[in-house]
C-alpha cells in the first residue's frame, strides 16, 4: 500500500466564514515593507489592557486547537468587557509535524489559524520544509518553485506573515512572499502597536537546504532595532517582536530570576543587544522550551511546543485626555505582567496537566474535524508490533527510540558501516499498543531521504566531537561504539567496531544518514553534499522504510523496552554529563544541530 505524503488533499475540506476578531490591518501599501494601520486617531483617554497571547512551534497539532480556542475566546471576552484588546501572535513552525497537516501542506492549519483570528505569524524554519506545491519536497523538474507551498499558505492566511531578516544572497533584497511583511502597525483606541517578525539565524541549516538555496539571514538584533525605530517614528506606543528564535528556562516563579535559564541561547543574546526601552515584548520559539522572564528590560516569553501551552503578557496602558498635562497627552505603558506558560490540557493527555480547564470550542471543532477524520483513516492502519510500554524519545542524550530508529536506518543499507540520526528529527514517543502508521508519522514527520556518505575515521570522530560538545540535539549511532573523554581541555574520541577493534583515522567508512544532516554546512558534516562523496537515495523516503520494517517485525517489540538500548552500556560513552564544557576554540565556533 502506498501511504499518503504531504500533497494529498482533503476532499470537501471545510471552509468556514468565521469572523476574525484580531486587530485591524490595512494591506494598502505600495512599498511592501510594512502593513500600516488606518490613520492614527487621537488616543482615547483612560487606562486599558493589551493582552498578548503568543504561540510557537504548534507543528500541525490540529486536535489541540479547539481547546486552545476556548482559552483565546475567554481572554478576548475579558478584554472586550474592560475596553482592552487581545493580540494573538504566532512565532513560527505552524505546519510541519502531523499527518493531518502534512497531507495538505499546512492548509488545515491555516484554516484553523484563520478561524482563531490570529493577528500575525512569524515564518519559522520548518515553514520551508514542504518545498514546491505537490508531492515533491524539493525541486525535481523545471518550473517548480522551491517556495511554492509556503507561498500558497501565505496567500491563504487572513492575517499577515512576518519575515524581516531573510534576503536574496545575490542582491541583498528582502525575500518577497505574498502577504508577508517585515513589520506591521495595528491600532486599538487610537493607539498604534508595532509588530516585527524574524526567524532564527540558523534557518538555512534547519530545513532542507535545496528549498532555501540562494537565501541568507540578516542578524536578528540589528534587523529588529532598525524596524522598531521606524515603527516608533510612525507613532507606535508598543513594539512586539514575534521571533522564531528561543531560549530555555526551567523556573517560572520569578520572571526576574534568570538562574534557571540558558542565557547563551539565541533569544537571550538578541534581547541583550537591543537598546533599552525600544522593544516591549518578544514572543519566542524554535527551541521547544519555556521562557517567561525579563531580559534587558524586555518581556521574553516562549511556550514549549506542539500546542501544549501558550504564552501571555499583559500590557497596561494609559492615555491622557486632550489638553491634559499628564504624559504630555501621550499613551504610556504603565505596567507589564509576564505569565508563566499556560498549559493547554486536552482530554487524553498524560496526567498531570496543570492548567485551567477549557472545553473544546465548537467552531474550531468543526473546522478541524474533516482534516482529522481524513488523517485518522490513514493513521489507524496497524503495522504488526504491539508495545507493552512506550519506547521513549530523548533529545539531549542517547535513548531507546533514537537507537531503534537508527538501527532501522542501518538495516536498510546492510553494507553500511554505521548509521547516524539526529534527535531533532525524532519528534515523540512510540506509545503503548499496536504500532500504527500514524504513530510512525508522529515520530518521524519529515519528508527526508537517505544519504550515503563516504567518510574517514578521523571525519567521523570529528563529527561526534562536534556534537558532544554542542548544546544541540544528540546524534544517535548504530554500527559502531563511540568512546569520549575530556583530556587537557580537548575532547578525545575513539571509534570501535562492534567486535571491539579500534577504527583508525584513515579507515574508509560508509555512513548512512538523512539528507537534512548531509546537507548542513556546519555541525560536523561540513556540507558533505558539496564534497562529491555523497549519494542521495531518493526512491524511498525514510519514513516509508520505517513503516516497511515495522511490518516485518511482527511481534518482536513486545518487551518492556527496546533491546537495542542499555543505559549501562550506551553506544556513545563519556564519563558524567554530556561534555559540553570540553570544547576547542574551533568547536566553539560551530553551531549545534538544532530543531
Structure description:
The protein is built from 13 helices and 26 strands. With 595 residues, it is α/β, with parallel strands linked by helices. The chain has two domains: 34-369, Metallo-dependent phosphatases (Purple Acid Phosphatase, chain A, domain 2); 382-588, 5'-Nucleotidase, C-terminal domain (5'-nucleotidase,  domain 2). The strands form six sheets. A seven-stranded mixed β-sheet has the order 1-8-9-11-12-14-13, covered by helices on one side. The two termini are 31 Å apart.
Helix content: 10-25%
| CATH homologous superfamily descriptor of the largest domain | Metallo-dependent phosphatases
Give the domain tally: 2
How much of the sequence is in beta strands? 15-25%
Number of strands: 26
CATH fold assignment of the largest domain: Purple Acid Phosphatase, chain A, domain 2
- CATH architecture group name of the largest domain: 4-Layer Sandwich
Largest sheet: 7 strands, mixed
Straight-line N-to-C gap: 31 Å
Strand order of the largest sheet: 1-8-9-11-12-14-13
Secondary-structure-based class equals alpha/beta
The CATH top-level class label of the largest domain: Alpha Beta
What is the multimeric organization of the chains shown?
A: single chain
Radius of gyration: 24 Å
- Unreliable segments of 5+ consecutive residues: 1-33, 584-594
Choose one word for the global shape: globular
Mean pLDDT: 86
What is the count of DSSP helices, taking H or I runs of 4+ residues? 13
